[in-house]
Design brief:
Layout lengths: L1 H10 L16 H6 L4 H14 L4 H12 L2 E4 L7 H12 L4 H7 L8 E4 L4 H7 L7 E4 L10 H14 L3 E5 L2 H5 L3 H15 L3 E5 L8 H13 L4 E3 L11 H18 L4 E3 L7 H14 L12 E3 L2 H14 L12
Parallel strand pairs: 1-2, 1-8, 2-3, 3-4, 4-5, 5-6, 6-7
Helix pairs in contact: 1-4, 3-12, 4-13, 4-14, 8-10, 10-11, 11-12, 12-13
Length: 330
Amino acid sequence: MEKTAETLRTAQLPQVQEPRNAGMPLDLDLVRALQANTSAIERRAATLPGRRSVKKAYQAAWLARAVTMIDLTTLSGDDTAGRVRRLCAKARQPVRADLLEAIGLPGLTVGAVCVYHDMIETAVDALAGTGIPVAAVSTGFPAGLSPFHLRVTEIGESVSAGAKEIDIVISRRHVLTGNWQALYDEMRTFREACGDAHVKAILATGELGSLRNVARASWVCMMAGADFIKTSTGKESVNATLPVSLVMMRAIRGYHELTGYRVGYKPAGGISKAKDAVTYLTLVKDELGDRWLQNDLFRFGASSLLGDIERQLEHHVTGRYSAGHRHPLG
């Protein structure tokens, strides 16, 4: 199993502190010129699941990397402090210790734990000393329709409570009506309210109407200073998809070429299988390069994904598949 650990270590770039995206003035000419060839994008995306295949130690290494990129999430109306503590325990030990020892990667942890505002203090306490950040959804998640001043205040309250990352939701109506100045101003205000906490802009792509709107909203949010752009809240009828991911990744690449700033990407909602995680990671490698294959620039918003990855890692170690209930989230 040493090959799994060595494969992951040799692919690991030295962790560098990227300068935060400072944003840029809104360029309406650039935004309005953006187009999306939907049929070509969908054809490209359709080839992805079968075009790349990784096996054995290489697959295990990719899956171990995926674990470090998961924002382990609970966003249910019936969340309790006990549930959040169990989730944090899973974040600290995401894969059974014997499996991590077998593949030579003890000490592996997830990228973050994502919760509602009321659960921030519980999560911060449960993760003390681990270095795992707490992310909080904010700004009237998931619809983003509460009064604007309350959305801004909510960000400040979450940062004060200990959240190091804030997942905000944009006002979809600004995208659907083409009011790019309003979207830019909103995102800029949210970024300023976050202070030192990194901000992930949730576009709710399933509600934006077209891939062209996805491209334009991605650029506007990055121009306004978003540290990450994220597909979905997980509450829409359509969440992360490969065509949407392709559009957003190319927007990130274009923005980096223009400004020099690297913006992170987070697909969320509907990614529950290990094979899907590998597909997304290969798309990242193809479109953005190896630097984005670290958790300061790429995250999965997921809850059930971790269980299937752990199951696949057990198969790699033992040669047998186990029942899903052997890998609970908490």
